[in-house]
Structures
1.
Amino acid sequence: MSETLHVRPDTDEHDRPAVLELDGVTRSFGPETAVDSLSFDVRDGELLTLLGPSGCGKSTTLRLIAGLERPDGGCVRVRGDVVADGETFVRPENRDIGLLFQDFALFPHLSVGENVAYGIADRPDEAVERRVNDLLDLVGLADYADAAPDTLSGGQQQRVALARSLAPEPDVILLDEPFSNLDVSLRREMREEVRRILKETGVTAISVTHDQEEALSISDRVAVMNDGHLEQIGRPETVFEQPTSRFVAEFIGEAGFVSGRFADGTVETPVGDVPGDAIAGLDAEYEGAEVDVLVRPDDLRAVPTDGGNGRVVHRQYTGPAFVYRVQLDSGGLVYCEHNHADQLSLDERVRVDLDIDHRLAWFPTEE
């Protein structure tokens, strides 16, 4: 399936060397396979997020990279050097990999500056002081070197923990659910701040989360995992707009499907005809095929009417908008996003129309 028409133009990302590589990595716990033949790479300076539901294997993958778990099969490489395979296992402290813990794990008996300096204590005093000062300045805490961690806010503590992880200048930094312990009001601010810091330092980073908004907003690429497998990896907008599996389509955002038959260059659906050239990868070889077209809430409009083609069965207020769930007369369930000023009532009859400005994804109709 081809990509959407309006993704960012390719840069030199593909030309950057791979800093981290996983090749066929597998890890089982008794009869349960947590990670199954997982392969991907992370490029120099890239921020990759592993995204998936609880139990999909993303945290186990992070532990395998860090050296906290040993793979049963496959190979892990850092800058081309094998750190784990059937014969080699490099201990975590020798991998040149930093880890930002979910609970920050700051040492309460050390000051902010001493926490940042913890991993570089073997360097000359002047070099340590210079590195600590530079990092505290980078994370906006230059005046807090002597403060105790428990006097800081959650966001400040996270920045100290990030500075400490960056201090030894690791090849890779791992972020385990980095924003889950923050108040909702802080999360967006800290997502932007952490991305800024990572990009300014140029470090290669891997984040783990089950939060779709977080993954889409901070990542250069997103890797969606399910049941120990890699479902899809790509730029956030590509994964969202052109998912390669129904699981990805339904896990990321709200997904509705409208069914129709592709004939004479058009798919006739309950919400209107869709030209074949508005559906990615649907060409003449699929003539006559029954397909399900993926539509997101911003692809549809619901207009009140006495007749129409559906009924409002649920509505969710998000602040800037309402998202309406509409049961189509044809049997399908779709979502429509409207400005908060456009209010529809439950059980109201509506006509759902397409309102698209990009190419849609499709899947063969399920029997």
2.
Amino acid sequence: MELPFVTVDVFTATRFRGNPLAIVTIPASGPKPTREQKQTIAREFNLSESVFVHDVADTANKTRHIDIFVPFAEVPFAGHPTVGTAVSLLDQGVTTLVTKAGPILLQQTGPRIAQASIPHNIHLHAATVCDLALAPSQLPANPQICDLELAAPIFSVVNGVSFVLVELPSLDLLADVQLSVTHFPVDKLLDEGWRNGFLGRYYYVRTGSRQDESGQPVVSLRTRMIAPTFEDPATGAAACCLSSFLSSVKDKQDTPSRRYELTQGVEMGKESNIVVEVTMKDSQIDEVRLAGTAVQVMQGHITV
């Protein structure tokens, strides 16, 4: 079995920046890889995520089912694979991606730019990192970062995708954030019914605010996403989580929509540009839309 693939760098128009993604196409006819084979392929790519797109025989069909894998597991949804896959399918006019988390509607908002309506079920948790009573060696060495992290809110954008949202007052402090091997246990930090999935740290600095030509508020942020032992150059789910938190909790949105422009990965030399738009209805979040571009880097075939 031979499966065509491409790799793209997501949330950037410049090769070798952004967040890499492998996209493998499963032809509409012929043998199909098993779940175990998909996992083996994802492990071989060893990227943060790999996507498998189920092609269709009818070109009039504008819906594609996708499977998203990290190197050692399948996940129901992730932000940068959704946007990267959406951009790769723009020429085919695809309007819906069906993930294990449900269908995601797509829209082209500019040249090689795709916007995806993201599933959301937001929740602010009661605990903070301070409740863990960690040893000093498990905490950031910088005392200012340490204090802010201990008191930072913990927020979920969907059940299973959560972040400690640490606001920092300067880009100098953001640059001083270090990788950490400290694991944040979901069973101790997340509320009952939410104790599963991924919990990372998302550090952010406000860098500006303005109104666009239509009068829509625009908030600019610099961010870093740190998980145990690694840093991610672009994290769509974290960007959606932070934007939802700011609109619904910290800076309650009083306009129908607000756009967030997030720059991530600068400290890694892999600058990424992420756009999130949050719309409100009856004082509740109605839609969360994640947008970005991607550029192809490699292509080839996988022999299974």
3.
Amino acid sequence: MASSKRVILAEDVKLLMSQVAGHTHDKEKSTPGMLKHKDGNILKPLLKPVQAKTEIEFYEGIATSPHAALLSFVPKYYGIGSITLQSFRGEVLILEDVSANFQKPCIMDIKIGRQTWDPYAPPSKRESEEKKYMECKRDLGFCIPGFQVYEPESWQLTKFDKKYGKSLNQKTIRNAFSTFLNLDKKENAACIIEEFISQLKRIFNIISQQISLHLYSSSILLMYDCAQLGSNIEPAVWAHVRMIDFAHTFTGDSHDKGPDKNYLHGLENLIQVLSGLKS
């Protein structure tokens, strides 16, 4: 754990309205969901001690790790805070808001890997995970827990939750990406695909060349600013790929060494699906 914690006042935070997946605000379960601080940073509540320790160690150690090349694809880490809310009292990760500069952020959360439970998960956890997004994980090695998209003419925001994600399969997954990318409304939205593929291939190459890091139940965020569709600004400025959720991360010291075939399989299929949208 970090040596010092920043005290965060409840009146300085609000719910993160652009959250599309993960643990959301739930009074009955006393989970606050992702939060946004008035300074612009994102606060991720740490709900389980073991997973919290794992995620903190990942963020605090990535810069000097064998997989340091992934640093540009990971939200910037600003330490740990402590906060007391009506529904939650505990610690939070303080992270960069990776879509802060977007006027109309379109964001898709894609959980990577056919296996989304870690090697130490109890049988009950394995069983519950196997039942989630069964077809997509089995056939594609990834699933879509949620996304939000702006319509480029009306600026209407539409959100698709886990219920929609669980209805998808290998055949209908293309529809989800087409909707997210506004492919039926803007021909020049195709340039986003090229940018996403380019960044995903860089992540794939980094992970395939190391044997120490294994990621379970980790997600890729695809993000773009709908307000920039049709602009002359390079897509690299307003279309980003980011890796998030490292609570179930294992290194060579705590896991068998070797390529992370589970993660690479899902990433490779994601690249193939996006490539197919260009035709």
